């Protein structure tokens, strides 16, 4: 499959940056992308998943167990051999039922042979990869709750129909939606690590470039992907280096104070804001090859880490990005 | 894309048909509005060239995605798999009748199938949209992915029965590419019309190439660019282009308002003049002329915005939530869940009879008729429809209070699971300012744009609310009408200023609301309550609340108590 290459996406730097940070440190907790249709949201998410190096898993395991976790899944997997598989990318359709998402009793076996067997759902499939939900604001609320819960805990716990099953489900959750078509509840929004706003570029050159690249990709996808392969490979190396460096990145106390002051200045609710801000800043430092987190890293990730956590004021129309920028100036001058 | 699609002239629709037939998977599909012989002729003509498959709007998710066929599996005693509709449809063209009734859930699955990376794995989609009302439209997630939108209501079928369909291309490389100048010209048109989707840009470039290919040319010329601007960009316009700086003639009616945001590029850039071939100004003009009249009005009134679609659209009742009811016979599909215990209970008494002599088979014999599913009684989502009297007679401050109440209610919408719609009546007739939404962003914008003053077309307001309410009722919502007025209408339904006729019309409209069994409340906002508003409430069979001192807070409290 020759998907549109990640590096060939025109502009949309903030979205690409957020996805890279989430790839370096999945613990950041997912990315929410706000924007109109046709701004390349799903293209970017898919493209990133497609370029990441394949993962190693126990051969034939229905839950994608990593070799060191072999046998911990409900089956449990017994094979001693391992196999490479592509980084999972699950595109959750809007109409998905709870059964399909979390998994359910294997009906066929239950009815025919009376065997109680768990049929894994999309959450198991997304383990160690990405779970993408388009139009998350139109998804039934109880499903969104459930997804965020699993994304945060990294484990899917099923207690229904006489089944009692738990399995690992660690994935980067990527949601997208258009705020004009209904909002996400603030409590849910808060649980996304990062949020970005995308818009189709408003300059002539960028638009011409979009058309040109789409056309060349359409005409000869293989050649187009070949052309962008070196740029994609560079991104893969950056992510790999970032992941390797992440545990060593130091966080000086004064940067922690910086983050707290910033959160207080823009009145971001809850502790989650500060934690995500620091995580994202660390991931950025790792991605850029810095040994310690610096103030500039905090400032760079502040909009995407805090934008969706500002207290909403019905009467204040100032965009949240502007409010954060104001707070940055206020705190750091 | 928001408002109804462009009705390009019938030739343009025929052109769209021919381009689509050239490469169905590349162009995504056609959105055809307006039932009639022309549309039937178009679909029939298309069917003679490509394989068509019909997708009923009520298709369930099992049929869509395939999987284990439970009924056949039980009968056969082994698992029988069934291919899903989306897989079967690959490489063909799917025709979706009653497209305006497609649920967002179904649309989501179909949109995923349209997004497949390999063109061979995709299918073309033809949406047959029979929507009569303005607020009904197929889900935007689908219309966005289709290159062309055509209004065929008044077209003649002849143009399609004789349409000369091209041979489908074998490789996308057969379609000529646009020159750099051509792409630049299309980009300018997209900026001038406020078309912001990357897909639209892609479709535009592809359409220009297809137009050249259909004309038997290898080079894309200006007429091809004009075709792309007309067919793809014009129906997606969200604003009117600024008038060309050097134009001496009157701009097209109605006068284009200034673009809502800073326009980075001046379409009349002098550097372009000598580059020759495509003239962006002319292209923009051609595209602007092709904007369908309905959309033109909407833009002029500032009613279209980027991305504002039909919102959540119709939401079907969930078989998964609510108060549990007794299990009932049926197969677990469409999200309904199997009631295992009840199924076993139904099967057990028959085991002795079902045992075939001489055959030993472990396990229960369960037949299709034994299978039970759980049922829940779901409460439908409620929509509060505000009808606000914004006339001169309703004090100006009142309007501000009403706006405040709507915002406060919306701020709690996620708790109460309600949506809000807003109708304002002033001047000569009522307007739907805000279709049902949960979005604070949209509501706030609609409210800031709500002007006050003028006559009181109460009858028009009530009848609009009635239409909206019955439509919502039909789609499974529970509407609640909140009418804020002093009850003194002075504009009759036909627009004339005649107090007697206006009062009579208003009473008629109010009785229609009662007949439609819409529940509501009339809030009298005049400083000294008089009998008119109470009479309206009585005719509506609605509650009457005189609130001379209403503030935003008390209003929202009162309404909150009712919902």
Approximately how much helix is present in the residues of chain A?
A: 40-55%
Structural class of chain A: alpha/beta
E-strand count of chain A: 11
Largest interchain contact: A-B, 58 and 79 residues
SS elements, strand count of chain B: 15
What would you report as the Rg of chain B, rounded to the nearest angstrom?
28 Å
Q: What is the terminal-to-terminal distance of chain A? A: 49 Å
Q: What's the rounded overall pLDDT mean of chain B?
A: 77
Major sheet summary line of chain A: 5 strands, parallel
Structural class of chain B comes to: alpha/beta
Q: What's a concise summary of this model?
A:
The complex is a heterodimer of chains A (333) and B (563). By secondary structure, chain A is α/β, with parallel strands linked by helices.
Written account of the structure:
The complex is a heterodimer of chains A (333) and B (563). The radius of gyration of chain A is 21 Å and the shape is globular. Chain A contains 13 helices and 11 strands. The longest helix of chain A has 25 residues, at 221-245. Chain A is of the alpha/beta class. Chain B has 563 residues and is α/β, with parallel strands linked by helices. Chain B has helices spanning 10-22, 24-27, 37-49, 61-65, 70-76, 85-88, 104-114, 140-143, 158-161, 180-193, 198-214, 222-233, 280-289, 293-300, 340-347, 351-354, 396-411, 413-416, 440-448, 458-474, 499-515, 531-540, 552-562, and strands at 29-33, 52-54, 66-68, 81-83, 93-96, 124-129, 148-151, 323-329, 372-377, 382-389, 418-426, 429-437, 478-485, 519-524, 543-546. Chain B is flat and about 85 Å long. At the A-B interface, helix 4 and helix 8 of A face helix 5, helix 7, helix 10, helix 11 and helix 17 of B.
Map the helices and strands.
The complex is a heterodimer of chains A (333) and B (563).
Chain A: H1 13-24, E1 31-35, H2 41-51, E2 55-58, E3 82-85, E4 89-92, H3 98-102, E5 104-105, H4 107-113, E6 118-119, H5 122-125, E7 129-133, H6 141-153, E8 155-160, E9 163-168, E10 171-177, H7 186-190, E11 194-198, H8 204-219, H9 221-245, H10 253-265, H11 272-288, H12 295-306, H13 320-332
Parallel strand pairs in A: 1-10, 1-11, 4-7, 7-10
Antiparallel strand pairs in A: 2-3, 5-6, 8-9
Chain B: H1 10-22, H2 24-27, E1 29-33, H3 37-49, E2 52-54, H4 61-65, E3 66-68, H5 70-76, E4 81-83, H6 85-88, E5 93-96, H7 104-114, E6 124-129, H8 140-143, E7 148-151, H9 158-161, H10 180-193, H11 198-214, H12 222-233, H13 280-289, H14 293-300, E8 323-329, H15 340-347, H16 351-354, E9 372-377, E10 382-389, H17 396-411, H18 413-416, E11 418-426, E12 429-437, H19 440-448, H20 458-474, E13 478-485, H21 499-515, E14 519-524, H22 531-540, E15 543-546, H23 552-562
Helix pairs in contact in B: 1-11, 10-12, 10-13, 11-12, 12-13, 17-19, 17-23, 20-21, 21-22
